[in-house]
């Protein structure tokens, strides 16, 4: 039983247009022999990295890498260079100290620092978290349930302990003496006595796990060090855990009998394919120990009954190349012909459709192994635009991704959906919940278990009902009236839309007419929506118990803080359990959000989310534009307290949902990875230009942001369209992509070949990656014509990052500074890929970064 993770809980003034400082004349001195050599730029000494040529030759191509020496993390030269860059960054950021403090205090003023979560029932306890003012971390707590039928969570008040309340894990106490602290998993035995937990105190994502007796507070002697994850059997007699290899790949599963030496542990599974990662856990019904192993394109599930822990794992369905699947188990209680239970296997897979389908197998018919495609089809995604769409429907691959899709097996709510992707289903004792994507947004639908059994046995589509969040009273998205400011803005935007559309592909912004401004949904039945007015992320969550009579779901938007609801599918009753509290006079009605569609250079329509303060005209605004676009990860709407300070200063917040992500299903991802990766960069640039050409934002006041793979995006767009951005913030950026993907000994490399291609063995992939990898394509000389218009660059990285090694952004920084580009880097010494730990430290980090971004927009207070 895994405990859910703990959560942490104006006036508009547009400053003058930011102008670039005068770049001092650069001498010919290169600092060849002194890594800390520097020259003045008017703000302080710029540390100049020595240039030590190193050849890299593949497929007949040679690249001279001047900064590969920075890879030696233990070198004194490297450590001195990192320290010098941090000192330089502090010098450059010193003028922003007041703004940073202001932003931090604004952040803090909106947060209810002493808070608690809604209790979640797991076995015999209600679990919840508390945060306290002044404390960096949350505290995990619990109280016993009041009886078997106790499904109403106890009311928890901030700072007021409950009767019989017990602290399960006080992260503040555990983190004492550590600059960095992160929990890597927490599992509790079914009787509630034993806790298995993991911690990381360096940021390298290698966790040390211990076993604690929650009755006495004592810990057992066994310790599992530097592992990837672990789980108990329900009786806490056995621990299964995952080993990491030198390349940080989870590759093997070990079995440990509690109370015996760790040296006696037995390996029960080893994954020999270096593309695959291994995970371990319990099935939802806690009847099986489950090993999940998979690459980016292929998965396999192996199982072992918990009552035979020393047995052998068995594949539920043997792996098939380029097929992903998952399985869960449930039953239709008393639904058989004679009142018997119908045991079910629920299989989620893409063997027959790239956008996945859900099959429900009646397990009375035969024993496993089963085959993919067996059973009753409950829901299936759209094949349109997918690489293998023609295998489903001839001609589907060449169809636009957003073509409305219908399938007779699908529930009525999915008929005619645009960009339909199936994301999962959960079956509980009293309800069934379906999760899917359509119109570039997540959706959930629910029905009673009784109705699901009836539809299953009758062989008809299941009668799901979509859950849609309630609108706020008098909110702009349902209010048909338009105030004077919105009248004026509607007219301006309508004219700009017409002018932009006339410029042709790559510049049109769709859905900003006055009619769209005053409509309630902006969608039509026969085409992609020109405008989506209600943006939100919604999902099923906080339902760890199979027996729960009601379903919990949560939602949030860019302007609405997160809410947790309890929904009864039998009666339709929807209860608000908690709404995140935002202090400081925040009112979501003061802000607006919408999703418009931009035509990219190849004709594809790209959804772009826009957020702004309602009483500020969006005309030549300062703009913060952020994106990701990789690994089929969707950048869905979500609330962030730190965004309020930007919006209140008149900043237009934009999120282009570029290809490479999963917003429009699998086809959206396929068109933005491997040899289609440049679509991600082009989509982001085209969205930026469209918003600027429409007069909504000024290039001189536009700052772009992205992290990790989104940092690669930042490096690429800066190289390809430097004139569009005043500044670029790149967080832990994957900017030396080709060098890393050529080296299979580095963490993640082999598994990443499915995402980027294999340049080591494929000359075409090598040439394609070389054409866009940011480090190799960045200016390397003051004579590069891009240098004069190159955006200012702010980089964040961490020395203990195992996902994007620090050397990538450091090499990029050195090359940019050598070319005369204004670039600075904030380098964390005690952190990992996710940055610092502790909520106050994280607020300080965000304030630090946002102060730089605002200064690039000409906003200094």
From TrEMBL:
<feature type="domain" description="Peptidase S9 prolyl oligopeptidase catalytic">
    <location>
        <begin position="640"/>
        <end position="858"/>
    </location>
</feature>
<dbReference type="InterPro" id="IPR002470">
    <property type="entry name" value="Peptidase_S9A"/>
</dbReference>
<dbReference type="Pfam" id="PF02897">
    <property type="entry name" value="Peptidase_S9_N"/>
</dbReference>
<protein>
    <submittedName>
        <fullName>Protease II</fullName>
        <ecNumber>3.4.21.83</ecNumber>
    </submittedName>
</protein>
<comment type="similarity">
    <text>Belongs to the peptidase S9A family.</text>
</comment>
<dbReference type="InterPro" id="IPR001375">
    <property type="entry name" value="Peptidase_S9_cat"/>
</dbReference>
<dbReference type="GO" id="GO:0004252">
    <property type="term" value="F:serine-type endopeptidase activity"/>
</dbReference>
<dbReference type="InterPro" id="IPR023302">
    <property type="entry name" value="Pept_S9A_N"/>
</dbReference>
<dbReference type="InterPro" id="IPR051543">
    <property type="entry name" value="Serine_Peptidase_S9A"/>
</dbReference>
<feature type="domain" description="Peptidase S9A N-terminal">
    <location>
        <begin position="47"/>
        <end position="328"/>
    </location>
</feature>
<keyword id="KW-0378">Hydrolase</keyword>
<dbReference type="Pfam" id="PF00326">
    <property type="entry name" value="Peptidase_S9"/>
</dbReference>
<keyword id="KW-0645">Protease</keyword>
<dbReference type="GO" id="GO:0006508">
    <property type="term" value="P:proteolysis"/>
</dbReference>
<dbReference type="InterPro" id="IPR029058">
    <property type="entry name" value="AB_hydrolase_fold"/>
</dbReference>
<dbReference type="InterPro" id="IPR002471">
    <property type="entry name" value="Pept_S9_AS"/>
</dbReference>
<keyword id="KW-0720">Serine protease</keyword>
